[in-house]
Input
Amino acid sequence: MASRRYNKRWTPEYAAELLTAAAQSGLSDRAFAKHRGIDPRRLWWWRKRLGHKEAEQTKASFVEVAVRSPSAPAAGGRVEILLSNGRIVAAPLDVEPSKLGRLLDAIEGRPC
Output
């Protein structure tokens, strides 16, 4: 659930703290602002005012994961994937990777 901070007075220190949290979240400014209950334009204004570089923002990326020991998926278990646009995709643990890949391509608008 989004935390609401409507009455919080923004100081340069508070803005810098939020900009750092936004960059580390991996979310877009829009998704981060929605999650925090703030207007994304406020983030953009403070980034410009404080000189935070766009390059400081964390971009979504894939990280290689090594499976140490194969195990059967838990009954009824699922995996949740947070996309760069803020959407969450949930799938059963035993979903075929190729099917999940096609689904993610369709959601992200990439050619299959």
